[in-house]
Fold these 2 entries.
Entry 1:
Amino acid sequence: MNFPLRTLTTRAGTVGYYRLEDLEKEGLGSFQHLPYSIRILLENMMRHLGGVAGEGHLRAVLSWGKGTLPDLEVPFMPARVILQDFTGVPCVVDLAAMRDAMAEQGGDPSRINPVVPVDLVIDHSVQVDMFGSEYAFFYNVKREFERNFERYTLLRWAQKAFRNFRVVPPGTGIVHQVNLEYLAKVVQTKETPQGLIAFPDSLVGTDSHTTMINGIGVFGWGVGGIEAEAVMLGEPYSMLLPEVVGFRLVGELREGVTATDLVLTVTEILRKKGVVGKFVEFFGPGLSQLTVADRATIGNMSPEYGATMGFFPVDENTLDYLRSTGRDEELIDLVERYCKEQGLFRTPDAPEPAYSDVVELDLSTVESSMAGPRRPQDRWPLSRVPESFRQSFGKPAGEPVAATPNGHRWENEGGKTVAVATRPELKDGDVVIAAITSCTNTSNPTVMVGAGLLAKKAVERGLKVPPYVKTSLAPGSRVVTQYLREAGLLDDLEKLGFYVVGYGCTTCIGNSGTLIEEVAREVESRDLAVVAVLSGNRNFEGRINPLVKANYLASPPLVVAYAIAGSIHVDLTRDPLGYDPEGRPVYLRDIWPTHEEIHQVITSHMNAEMFKEQYSHVFEGDEQWQSLPVPEGELYRWDENSTYIRRPPYFDGMSREPKPLEDIVEARVLALLGDSITTDHISPAGAIPKHYPAGRYLLERGVDVLDFNTYGSRRGNHEVMVRGTFANIRLRNKLVDREGGYTRHMPSGEEMFIYDAAMRYQKEGVPLVVLAGKEYGSGSSRDWAAKGTILLGVRAVLAQSFERIHRANLVGMGVLPLEFMPGESVETLGLTGEETYTIRGLADLKPREVLVVEARRPSGEVVRFKARARIDTPVELRYFRHGGILPAVLREFLPS
C-alpha cells in the first residue's frame, strides 16, 4: 500500500506531506470521527508505512472508536526527544557505556548515536542555597558550576561526540518552558529523498511533565530515560491504542480564579475518574476562553491526574501564542495551512470527535484552591486549607496561627480571630518555605504578573514576610524576569524576599536547599510539622525538604500571600494577612489583583521581541559554560575517583544472546508498602542524609557534607543511586515500625537499611520481591526508580496497580511487574512480608499472562494466588527477555 506525497504551498515555499484524506480515497475509511490526538498518531503510521509501521497498524488506528480497541501495539516514531539534566545525564552515561561495550565486542562504537534530534536542557541543577538577596542568583549559579563540573564536562563531551545532540546550557530556563517558548514547532519539516516534507511535531521526554507541550498542540509525553535512549537510537515507541477521554469545558473562569485553581480542580476530577494509561483531550466552547499558557498549565499536570497526555488541539489561540513568542511568520503560516489541510485545526463550529468517555466542567464553578499536604490530587477550597492541615497532623484550631509583621500573632478565641503578642517559638503549621517555582506556573504570565501585582499592593500597605520564611523566585525562563522587571514588579517581589535564585526547577524537585539555620534547629529539636507553599506540581512526602512535613501547591499569588501570613492556619478568605503600620488589618481581598489589572500589565510590558532576544543565543551559554573543558574521542574517559560519573554495570559480561528466563524461587520481601508509593519514595531526588548508605558512601570518599549535592545530581553514579533506592526518609515499610529506608532481614529478623539488607541477600543468593498497593510508581518519570530496583536484586514487584511510566521502566530494566487480581491485595490474602515467594512459568511467558504465585509462611503453610504479568506487548516481552531495553538494542548493533 503506497500513498502519494501531496504538496502544500506555504509562505516559505512548497512542502510535501501525506494527506489523511487519501485514506478514504483508498477505501480505508474516514478519519473525521477520530479525536485530534489520534489523528496525529494516524499520520505517524501513514508516514512510516513500510518502515516501522505496517498496514495492520494503520488500519488499527483508523478503526479507533469503532467497537473494542484492538489488542495491537502500534509503533509511534517521535520527531524528537527532549531531556532535562537530572534524567539526561544518566542517558548520556548509558550511551557512553554502550559505546564501550560495542568496542569491547569488536563493533563500531560510533554506531551508538542518536538518529532523531535530541535537545537536553540543563534546568535541574540549581539549589536555593542563597535567597533573599540581589546576589542570590549569582551565588547559586557559582555553586551550581562548582558542584556539577563533572556532569557538565560529560555533557560538553556529548555535544561533540554525538550527532543530533544539542545542549541548552544552565541559566536559561526550565526544560518545558524552553520547549514551549522556543523549541517546539507544532509542525516540523525534514529533508528526505522525496524532498522537504511536513508533519506534526511530536516527542517523548525524560520528564513526566513533558506533557506541558500538549497545550500548544504538540503530541508527546514523558517516558523513562531507558525508553528515551531506545527512541534516540531509532527504536519506535511501542504502545497499545489508548482510550481517549474527552474533557468538555464550558463557561469561563470567574474574577479572581487562576489557571492554577483550574488545573488543581481538573486533577481532582480526573484522579477520581481514573485515566491512567489514557489520553485526555480537551474540547468544548470553554476552550476558546483559555490561553495557550493556561492550557499548558493543564497539560503540564497530566502525570498528576494520571493521563498519558492532556491534549489541546491547534486553533487560533495557538497561532496567537506562536506569534506572541516571536516565532517566524513563515512557521506560523505553515502551521495554519498544514493543520487546516489535515483536519488538525480546531474551530468552534467543527463537529465534536468521538471519545471513549466524556467529562464536563463548567469553568465558572472553579474556586480558589490549594492542594496538599501530601498529594497534588488532594484539592482544598481556600477556606478549608487550615482544616486540611489539622486533619492530617491533628493540630487543634485553638493553637496560634498567623504571624503578623507588627509583632503579633493570630489566635482563635471563641470562634473569632484576635491578635495577641508574638510568642518567640516557631509553631506547627508555620510556613517556612514559600517558593514561586516549577514549570507548571512560571510559564504563565497571568499568574506571574498576578504575583507581582499582589506583592506591589502588599508593599504599599506596609506588609512584610516573617523572618522564618525562606522565599524564592525561580522563573521558568529569562523572559519572565524581563517582563516583571519592565513592569516594575520585580522590585516589589524582592522587597518581600522573592529574589531570583536561578532559572530551573528548584524547590519543586527538592532543590529547596537548607532551611534558615535557626528554623531548622527549632523544627528538628521539637519535631514540628512545618509547611512549604509552592507554585509547583509535586508535593510528595520528603520531596520538598526533609524537615518539612506539609507541602501545599498553590498559584504564585497565593504563595506570596502565605509568605506574608506565615502560617497555614490562616483562613485567607476570612482572616487578615497582617496589619499595616497604622495597625489596620489587611485582607487578601484588599490586595488581590483583578483580571483587568493583570491584562493591562501583560499587554503593556510583554512582547515578541523579548522572546527573540532571550533565545537568540540559547545554545551558547555564558563564560563559565564556554570555559569548561571539552573531552575528545568517541569513547568517554571514565574517572574511577569520580563520585558523580561512573560507568554503569548494565553491560558488564553481557552475552551476545540473552539467557533463558528463569523462575523466581523462594524470594524474600525487601519492602512491604502501601498505596500511592511514588517514584520519590523509591528513588528520592532531594537531599542526601549523611547517616544513610549514600551519605556514608560519599563520606568514605572524602566528600564533605556541604558538597553532597542531591540524589538527582548524582544520577550518573550508580553507586550513589543504588544506595539511595527506597531511601526516602518518609517511606513507610510495613516490615518495620519506623519511617525511612529501613527493613527487616529474613529470617534473622534484624532491622537494617534496605540497601544493607539487599546486599546481604545478594551474598546469600536470595532473590527479592517488593509488595505494594495501588498506584505504585506514581509521580516523576524516574528511570532510577527501576534501575535501583534491579541493582538491589529485586526480580519482581507485586502491586494492586501501577502508574504507566514506572511500569514500563520496570520492564525496561528486566523487573517483572505483577498485578494482584481484582479484589485481591496484600491485606485480603493475609500476607505479612515474612513469607518466601515462588513465581513459575517465566520461561514461556506471554504478554499479560496470569501466573500463579506461591507464598510460603514461616509456619510452612502455602498461600497460592494468581497475578497478572504487566508485560503488556510483544515488544515489551522481547525487552524483558533481553534483561531490559538497552541490552536488547545493543545486541542489534553488535557485529554478527
Entry 2:
Amino acid sequence: MEVITSHVNTDFDSFAAAVAAQKIYPDAKIVLVGAQNKNVREFLALHDDVIETFDVKHIDRRLVSRLIVVDTKIGRRLGDLQALAYKPGIEVFTFDHHPPTTEDIPITRDFSESVGATTTILTKIIRDKGIHITPFEATLFALGIHEDTGSLTFKTTVYDDAEALAYLMASGASIEMIHRFLSPALSPEQHELFDRLVHAAKVIDVNGTPVMVTRAQVGEYVEGGSVVVSKLADIENIDVIFALLEHDDRTYVIGRSRTDTVDVGKILEELGGGGHAQAASASLKEMDLDSAEGGLVKELFKHAKQPPVARQIMSAPVRTVTSDITIRDANKLMIKYGYSGLPVVEDGKLVGLIGRREIDKAAHHGLSHAPVKGFMTRRIEPITPDTPLPEIQRLLSDENLGRIPVVDDGRVIGIVSRTDVLKVLGGVDYLNKSKNFKTAKPQYSRGEIAQRIKTLLPKEVQILLREIGDSADESGFSIYLVGGIVRDLLLNYRNLDVDIVVEGDAIEFAGIIAAKLNARVRTHHKFRTAVIILPDGFRVDFASARMEFYEKPAALPQVEPTSIRQDLARRDFSINAMAVSLNSKDYGKLLDFFNGQRDLKNGRVRILHNLSFIEDPTRVFRGIRFEQRLGFKLESETEELLKKAIDMELIGHLSDIRIRDELMLILAEDKPFKILKRLDELGALKILEPNIEIDGGLKALFTRIDEAARELDHHFATGVQKRIIYLAALLRNLKQGDLDSWCERMRLRKADKVRLIEMMVTVPGIVGKLEDPLRIRNSEIYKLLNPLSAEALVFAHAQTSKQKVQKRIHYYLSSLRGVKLSVNGRSLRKMGFPPSHVYNIVLKDLLAAKLDGKVDGPEDEMEFVLDRFGHYSEEWKE
C-alpha cells in the first residue's frame, strides 16, 4: 500500500500537493494528520464528494510499503505517521520546497526543489507526463501555489511557480474560487480583532528595518488570525509584522515578512514554532503577553540581518563640479560619463545637486552659458556611509530626489541614485534589457558575480565557498573558482561541480579544509590534485595552478606549478578558461584573460591554441558536447583544426578507457543524440564500433527512452540511469558475443555490463511474452518484471510499440510491485511449519495467490496457507 501524507495543520500548499501526488501515484491513499487550516477545512467540506481522504486510524500500517511525504521532511511534523517514516523496509519519497534540516526523516528518493511552493514541483511533473487534470484540480493546485508564494510576491518565488500557475490557468483553474478561498471576507470576530490590533500596533527599528509589533488578549480563540495579521500588514504597508494573541494560558505569535532582512521562520523557530521565511507562527504555553513580547524582541535583534547601507550600494568614486561651472559643461560631463546628476561643491563642501531636469530647463530657456549655482537644488539632506537602505528609500520618496550624496567627514565619497536602490531591491539585472539565456553580459563586476553565486547556488554551497575563501586568507593561499561552474554562472545555469585552483600546494590546502569541515580527502600527487568529500557526500575538487606539457599526442600531461593565468591558458576552450576569486579581499572578481565572455556572448566554442586537439584529442568530443548542449557553434578556425585532428586519426591514439569515459559523458547529456549525430557526421565515432548506426531509428528509440523515463521515473526509489539505457540503444545491433568483446575492450564497469546484458539479452524475451494477446495473470506479470532493474523496465517500455505491453508495465509498477503479505516466516512458525525451504515455497505461492486476487487480508492468507500446505505442519507435529 502507498500512503500520501503531509504535515499537521494542513494548509493549501500541503493539501494541494497531496492531491497532485495522487495524480502521479493513483493507487496511493491520502492520509491527513492533525488539524487543517480553516480555509482548507471549508474547502474540504464543500468538496467532500470529490476528494477521498483517510483518517490515520483507518490505515493498516503493516501493509504500507511506500510513504509519500509532501511539503515537509521533518519527522515531528508528521503527527501519528512519524513512526512509519522511520520503519525499516518502507520506501520514503519526499516532495518539498523547504531547505533540509537536522530533523529530516530518512529519505529513499527526494524530489524536492528550491521553488516557492511544493505544489509547483508536482504540477511540473503532471504537466511533463501529460496527465490530464480537471478544472477543479487545476483550481486546487493554483490555490496551493498562490498561498505559499503570496500570489507570486514572496522572495522565494521563482520562474517555475509562475509557469506552473500559467499552466493551471490554461487547464481551467477558476479565478472566482481562488479568490473566494484565498481572500475570504473577515468574520465579525476577525473584524473586532483587526480593530484591536490596529490600536495596539507600534513600529520598532530592528537593526535598521521597521518592524510592527501588536498584541491583544482574546477571550476566545479567533480562528484565521493569520488572515487578520496579513490584512493589517497590507493596509499599513509594513514589510514585517508580529502579532501576539493571549488566550487562556497560552500566547500565540503570528509573523509575516516581505524582506530578506527578517526571517520570521527562523525567529519563531527559536521560540518553539516554525514556518517559512515569509510566514511563521509559534504557540507559547504558560507565557503572558509581556513575557512573550520580550522574548520575541530579543530574538528579533539577535537574528534580523542588517539591511544594506549606503557604502555598500553607492556609486563611487563620484565626480563633482564647482558651482561656477556652466550648464553646458556640466551637460557634457553627464553625457560623457552617463550620469543623471552631479554633486556641486565649494571648497570641498557639498552645496547642492544639479540634475538632468535642471540642465534641460536651463537649456530650454537659452541659458546653457549660465553657472549651475543658479539652477542647482540647494535643499539637500546628505547621508552617511552607514545610512541603512530603508532610510535611503524614505528620503528618495519623501524629498522627491533622484539621487543622494554620501558624505563622510564633510567630504562627498559617493552618490546613491534610484537606480542603485532598484538594483539592490530587484537584482543587478532588474533594469537590464531582456536577453536570451545563452547570452552572457560582458565585464561583470565583483558584486554581479557574487549576486549570481547567491542566486544560482544553494545556500550551503555559498557558505562553503565563503569558508574556503576565509581559510585561504588565514593560510596565505590565493584560490579561484574555475571551469564549467564559472561559465554556467555567466549563462545563468546552475552547476554544482565545484572546482578550485590554488596558487600553491592544493593538496596542503585541501587538507586544511578537510580538517576544518570534518571531510575525507583523496590526493593525487602526480597531478597535484585533491578532492574532499563532505559528510553529506558533496565533493569539491582542488588543483594546484599548473602548466601542462605533452610528450606526444593523446598522452597524459606532465605538470609544473605556475600562476592562475598560465593555469587558465592550458585549458580546452575560452569559455572554460575563466576564474572567480574566492579570497575575501576580492571575492567575486572575474578573471578572463582569453575573451571567454566575448565567446559566450557570441555563442562560440573556441580553442586557446592550434595544438589543442593534437595534445588532447578528447577535446574533439568535449567541443561537440559544449556546442550542442549550449546551442553554440564551433568557431570557424576551431572547426577546421578539429576536422584535421579527426582526419589524422588522433582519436585512435586514445586509450579505450578514455574513449569510454567520453562516451558515457555524452550519454549523460540531456540531448545525447544531437551530439552523437554531429560526431558521426564529422567521422569521430568510427573508433567506437563499426556496426553502430546513428540513424533515424536510433533517434526514435532515444525519444521513446526519454518518454518512458519521464513516465516511469517516479515509481523508482533511485533515479533511472538513462546513460546506460542510451548505451543499450546505441549497441542494439550487436550480437551477444560482440557485445561481450566490446564491454571487455572498453573495460566497462561490472555493474554497467550486467545492466547492458539485461537490457539487450533478457528484455526482448520478456517483451515478447508480454505481447501475448491472451490475458496474463497478475502473478505472471510480476514474475516476468519483478527481477528487472529500473533501467531494464524503462528500456522494455521504450523498445515496444505495443500499448498492451506498456500498460502491463505501468500496472506492475503502480499496483503489483508494492503488494505485501501479512504472513511471514514468523507467522509460519507459529502456525506449526518447520523452518526450512518450505517457507520459500509457501510464501511464493501465497504472494501469487494475493496478486491474482484469490486472497485478501491476513485471515484469507492464513486460511490459504493451511488449506494448501497444512500437511507440512501435520507431518512436523508427528
